[in-house]
Write a structure and sequence with these properties.
globular; alpha+beta; about 35% helix; nine-stranded mixed sheet
C-alpha cells in the first residue's frame, strides 16, 4: 500500500542552523569581541548592548547567507536561547531597529580591529594558507563589481561592468583563498585609486600570518610604478600584468620575431603562432624615503598571432594578442605565464562572496555601514572557508565522485551551517542531537570536537 505524506505541527525543539555553534566557537578563538567592546561607538558611554553582541549577531546572519537586517527576527522569534549560546552573545540579541542603528553608529570605525581579529582567528585555529608547489604563498588582489542597480544607496555609481553598483577590492591568500583584506569602494572609482595604501595594509597582514615568501598577483589596472616600488621595498615577489597603454601591437610582434628563441615559438594549430619569452626594461619608482630609484626589471611576454581563426577562416589581417608581465621572480617563461593565469581563480572567490553568501546587494543606504558589512564578511567568509577545508581533510565527509581541493561556501552553508538538530536541556547543558539520516553528521562532529569541545 502506497504511503502518503502528511504535515503536522509539534512542540519538539528543532533547530536548523546548528552550525552556528561552530561559528561562535571559531570566532571565540580570536580577540574580536574584546577589541570591539573596548571601542566606544555609541553616544552613550555604556550602551545596553555592547558592540560585540551587535557584530556577533550580524556575523551569524552572514554565515547563513543572509544580509538583510530583518533576518535577525528569525533569531528573536526562534530558539532565542540557542542562538545566544551558540554565538557567544553575552547580554542579548538586538532587535532589527537596534541592529541597523548600531551598525550605522559603528560604521568603518572598527576596520583595523576587525582585520587584526581576522589574523588572530586564523592563527589560533591553526590555519596556514597553503603555498604553491614552488613554496611561494599566492596573494591575489583584484576588484570585483557589486550590482546595486536601481537603488539610491550612497556610493553607488556606474561600474566598469556596465551597471550601477560598488567596486570593492579584495585580497585572497593561499591556494584555498582565505580573505585577508577587503575594502568597499564607489562604483566609478578607478581600481588604482587608494590601492597603494590597501597594498601596504595587505602585505602587513600577510606577514603576520606566514613567514613564507609571498607571490603577489595583480591585474593590468594596477600596473603602476608606485605599486611595484611598494612590492620591491617589502621584499615580496610579484607578477603584475602590464598595461600596454599606447604600445603598438604590430611593433611588439615584429620585435619578438627577432628576440624569441626558436624553442619558445609554438604553433598549436595551423594559422596560430605563440611567442613566449622575457625582456628587460628600466622602471622608476619612489621608495619609502621619497627617493627616486631606477631598477631594471624583467618583463615576460606571451604574443599570439592568428592568421586563421579557430573556425578555419583565413583572416585578411593577422589578429595580434599581446600579454606582458612585470616580475622579479626567476621562474621559467612558461611557469610565469601559468602562474599568472591561475590568478583567475580569484574570480571564483568573488563569486562565492557575491552568490553563495549573497553579499552583492548590500543592505544599507549608508556607505560606511556597507563598509562594515564588507569588513564583517572577511570574518564570516573565513569561518566558512575554515569549516569547509577542515571537514574536507577530516575524512568524515561524504565521498565525492572527483577529488575536491576546496569546498564551496554554499556547500558549507547548506550542509554544515543549516544542519538540523534536536535541542534538549540536560544537566545545565544544551544538547544538540543530529539525525541518523544526515550523511554530514560525522563531519559536523569532527568540527565540533576540534573547535567547540577542545
Amino acid at each position: 500500500m502506497e504511503k502518503k505524506l502528511e504535515v503536522k505541527l509539534s512542540n519538539e525543539r528543532l533547530i536548523t542552523p546548528s552550525g552556528l555553534s561552530i561559528v561562535g566557537a571559531i570566532l571565540g578563538k580570536s580577540d574580536f569581541v574584546k577589541r570591539c567592546n573596548a571601542k566606544i561607538t555609541d553616544k552613550r558611554s555604556q550602551p545596553p548592548i555592547k558592540n560585540g553582541d551587535i557584530l556577533l549577531t550580524y556575523i551569524g546572519l552572514l554565515c547563513q547567507g543572509k544580509t538583510e537586517f530583518e533576518s535577525v527576527n528569525e533569531m528573536l522569534e526562534g530558539d532565542y536561547e540557542f542562538f545566544k549560546i551558540a554565538l557567544g552573545i553575552s547580554k542579548e540579541i538586538p532587535s532589527e531597529p537596534t541592529l541597523r542603528q548600531r551598525m550605522d553608529d559603528i560604521g568603518s570605525s572598527l576596520r583595523g580591529d576587525i582585520l587584526a581579529a581576522n589574523v588572530s582567528m586564523l592563527k589560533n585555529c591553526g590555519i596556514t594558507p597553503t603555498a604553491l608547489p614552488n613554496g611561494y604563498v599566492p596573494v591575489d588582489i583584484d576588484v570585483t563589481p557589486f550590482d546595486n542597480s536601481k537603488t539610491k544607496k550612497e556610493g553607488v555609481s556606474w561600474t566598469y561592468a556596465g551597471y550601477a553598483g560598488y567596486a570593492p577590492i579584495a585580497a585572497y591568500m593561499g591556494t584555498e583563498g582565505y580573505l585577508i583584506n577587503a575594502e568597499l569602494r564607489h562604483g566609478s572609482q578607478h581600481c588604482q585609486k587608494n590601492t597603494p595604501d590597501f597594498l601596504r595594509e595587505t602585505l602587513k597582514l600577510c606577514h603576520q600570518i606566514t613567514n613564507a615568501p609571498l607571490l603577489i598577483r595583480l591585474d593590468s589596472g594596477n600596473d603602476a610604478s608606485e605599486n611595484l616600488g611598494i612590492l620591491i621595498e617589502d621584499g615580496s615577489y610579484f607578477i603584475v600584468k602590464r598595461n600596454l597603454r599606447s604600445e603598438s601591437l604590430e611593433l611588439w610582434l615584429d620585435n619578438v620575431k627577432e628576440w624569441c628563441l626558436p624553442e619558445n615559438i609554438r604553433t598549436p594549430r595551423d594559422g596560430k603562432t605563440v611567442y613566449v619569452g622575457s625582456s628587460w626594461k628600466d622602471v622608476n619608482y619612489i621608495d619609502s624615503n621619497q627617493n627616486e630609484k631606477t631598477i631594471c626589471m624583467r618583463m615576460g611576454y606571451e604574443i599570439t598571432e592568428r592568421n586563421i581563426d579557430k573556425h578555419g577562416q583565413i583572416l585578411l589581417a593577422p589578429d595580434i594578442e599581446v600579454n606582458t608581465f612585470w616580475t622579479n621572480t626567476d621562474f621559467s617563461d612558461d611557469t610565469l605565464i601559468e602562474l599568472y593565469h591561475k590568478h583567475g581563480e580569484s574570480e571564483q572567490f568573488h563569486s562565492e562572496i557575491k552568490t553563495d553568501m549573497d553579499i552583492e546587494r548590500l543592505p544599507s543606504g549608508k556607505f560606511d555601514t556597507n563598509e562594515l558589512v564588507i569588513e564583517l564578511t572577511v570574518l564570516a567568509y573565513n569561518i566558512l572557508r575554515i569549516m569547509g577545508q577542515v571537514s574536507l581533510n577530516s575524512g568524515s565527509s561524504p565521498q565525492t565522485k572527483h577529488p575536491v581541493k576546496r569546498r564551496r561556501l554554499r556547500t558549507v552553508i547548506n550542509n554544515l551551517i543549516l544542519i538540523a538538530a534536536h535541542v534538549t536541556n540536560h544537566s545545565r547543558k544544551l544538547l544538540l542531537a543530529l539525525g541518523r539520516c544526515n550523511v554530514w553528521r560525522f563531519a559536523f562532529l569532527d568540527l565540533f570536537r576540534r573547535f567547540v569541545s577542545a
